[in-house]
Design brief:
Layout: H1 4-13, H2 17-20, H3 29-43, H4 52-72, H5 75-84, H6 95-100, H7 103-126, E1 129-137, H8 140-143, E2 161-174, E3 179-190, E4 193-207, E5 210-219, E6 221-233, E7 236-249, E8 252-266, E9 271-279, E10 283-292, E11 296-306, E12 310-319, E13 324-333, E14 336-346, E15 351-361, E16 364-373, E17 376-385, H9 390-430, H10 432-462, E18 466-474, E19 486-488, H11 490-495, E20 502-504, E21 526-533, E22 536-543, E23 548-550, H12 564-571
Parallel strand pairs: 1-17
Antiparallel strand pairs: 1-2, 2-3, 3-4, 4-5, 5-6, 6-7, 7-8, 8-9, 9-10, 10-11, 11-12, 12-13, 13-14, 14-15, 15-16, 16-17, 18-19, 18-21, 20-23, 21-22
Helix pairs in contact: 3-4, 4-10
Length: about 575
């Protein structure tokens, strides 16, 4: 769920039509029409013709209700609103801005959007991708005491060195709608020996079902590679590639041909099977089964070939609410045994951090740190030990986790909090007039609904139905609370009662309900309600965005309140 601050900032510039009508986002057309008729009885100017002041306020409120109905009852407009919000309904997107911003602010906003469009267009055309890797050998930290003469190392610091650096970059150059050129290059240095390569690839979209490309590369030898992809039928596709590599060997060049082919088929909604054949210096046949759902990703594979024959299984668990993945794998083959475990965490919209520990024979212990930033990848493989050393495993596992939380708590969180507060304050100042307007509209709506609320209350009292005794909305917990931190919304909540039942759909911005407004932008808000049903007192507390359904026997006052804060909020 989005943070309170993010939601509040969105509502400053937009409106929640569903909340205006008290509807869920999957409401049917009949529900939309019924809600409009019900609110028309409250807010239509003709209903208040005898009172000039109320008639004037109704002329302000009713057009909002009618606009919400017009948009939600039109399938095309509703689809646009659901996808892009209020701004998507405007012809050019500037009508809303012009009503809330000065000419200078409009110009600045236009220039900013123009720069963003140009940048996005450039990235879409070039699609730059890059990888930067630094290999670190820190094995001396854990292997040094295995030396025969350990005393020789007793007074010296461990020797940590960078033994590998590699950089690769590629960009795409669209030539036509079907033809694209790709330019790529890489540089690498390992143990003092450097090498590099540059390649040019031409890709053509042959049809809707396939593409083909030819790559020419030069550097550490020259190579020609041909690749192709084709959808075989609705549930299957295949790839094929062949290459000729000319590798210098003394005064002559050695020709190394290679061929690879893969066929994949969707066996089930969540299961895919693949068979891959490789021929060349390292020939092999691989069979793979992939199981993928929203929460799990499992891969099992068997490879038979020269020089390596192996079996592999991996499992990844996805924590969608936390934007995190935990993964583990095991590989057993003629090369040895390797077990891996690690995690991956999305830290921002475009950035992901990951850490993996590899333990095995003959690799020892390796910690791999990885960061993805858009299309750029940064990797730091750290070789901790040549053998399986418990100390290396312990520090390789817990030190990255401890470092992540320390940096997050001490540096990142304070920085992001400060940035959000500045952004919120800037938004408040830029939209002060609009916020005041929302407050006045809410106050007008309350005055207009009084007669209807009185009739609803009388009807509910006669039959012992749902009667709202007291309701508060806003910041109800915390120190130094003032009356400006929350609203008394008893009338507003009673107006939502229909036939002894009250329903506020999940995900509703309560500050957009009729007669509500946001008393504390950027703060976590709650709704506390004290009500009677069948002459018995009930107490409940809901967070902003929760589904509210009354009555509920769990709210009976004889039972403990749903939250200790409920009684605190109601006592104020």
């Amino acid at each position: 769920m989005a943070s309170s601050t993010d939601d509040d900032l969105d509502l400053v510039d937009g409106d929640d039509y569903y909340a205006w009508l008290g509807l869920s986002k999957n409401a049917s057309k009949d529900e939309i029409n019924n809600a409009f008729r019900r609110f028309s009885r409250m807010y239509h100017p003709d209903k208040h013709a005898s009172d000039a002041a109320l008639h004037s306020k109704a002329e302000t409120i009713f057009p909002k209700i009618k606009k919400a109905h017009d948009v939600l009852s039109d399938p095309q407009k509703r689809a646009i609103y659901d996808t892009m919000g209020v701004k998507g309904l405007e012809t050019d997107g500037w009508e809303i801005v012009s009503r809330t911003k000065t000419p200078q602010e409009i110009l600045e906003e236009y220039e900013r959007l123009a720069r963003e469009r140009e940048k996005k267009l450039l990235e879409q055309k070039t699609n730059p991708k890059g990888t930067f890797s630094i290999g670190i050998d820190a094995s001396d930290m854990f292997d040094r005491y295995h030396a025969i003469d350990a005393m020789e190392y007793s007074s010296s610091l461990p020797n940590i060195e960078i033994n590998e650096i590699s950089i690769s970059q590629s960009i795409e150059c669209p030539l036509t709608t079907k033809n694209t050129a790709i330019i790529a290059g890489n540089l690498a240095s390992r143990n003092g020996r450097g090498q590099g390569q540059i390649s040019v690839t031409g890709r053509r979209l042959v049809s809707d079902n396939g593409w083909a490309e030819v790559e020419l590369s030069a550097g550490d030898g020259t190579a020609i590679i041909v690749r192709g992809f084709r959808t075989l039928w609705r549930r299957a596709f295949g790839t094929m590639s062949g290459s000729l590599q000319f590798t210098p060997h003394g005064r002559v060049s050695v020709l190394k041909p290679a061929f690879s082919s893969m066929v994949a088929m969707q066996l089930d909604k969540n299961v895919q099977g693949r068979i891959t054949y490789n021929w060349g210096t390292h020939s092999s046949m691989t069979s793979m089964i992939i199981y993928d759902t929203d929460k799990r990703h499992i891969v099992a594979a068997v490879q038979i070939g020269l020089p390596n024959t192996l079996a592999m299984i991996s499992y990844t668990h996805k924590f969608l609410d936390d934007d995190m993945k935990l993964k583990g794998s095991l590989r057993v083959g003629t090369f040895g045994v390797v077990a891996e475990y690690g995690c991956e965490k999305q830290v921002t919209k475009f950035s992901t951090l990951g850490a993996t520990v590899s333990i095995g024979i003959p690799i020892g212990v390796i910690l791999k740190l990885k960061m993805n930033r858009g299309n750029q990848i940064y990797m730091i493989p750290i070789h901790l030990a040549d053998e399986i050393v418990p100390n290396a495993i312990f520090y390789g596992t817990f030190l990255p986790v401890a470092t992540y939380f320390a940096v997050k708590l001490l540096i990142v969180n304070p920085f992001l909090k400060d940035q959000k507060e500045k952004e919120l304050q800037k938004k408040k100042e830029a939209n002060a007039t609009r916020l005041i307007t929302k407050q006045r509209e809410a106050e007008s709506a309350v005055e207009l609904m009084k007669q209807t609320v009185d009739r609803i209350r009388e009807s509910e009292e006669r039959k012992g139905g749902l009667i709202i005794k007291k309701a508060l909305y806003g910041k109800l917990e915390g120190e130094s609370l003032t009356t400006t931190d929350y609203l008394t919304v008893t009338l507003q909540v009673q107006s939502l009662v229909n036939d002894s039942r009250l329903l506020i759909p999940e995900g509703t911005h309560m500050s957009e309900l009729p007669g509500f407004y946001d008393p504390c932008i950027g703060e976590a808000k709650e709704l506390s309600i004290t009500y009677e049903f069948r002459r018995r007192l009930h107490i409940c507390l809901f967070k902003d965005g929760d589904r509210v359904l009354l009555p509920n026997r769990d709210h009976l006052a004889e039972q403990p309140p749903s939250s200790a804060a409920a009684s605190d909020g109601l006592s104020r």
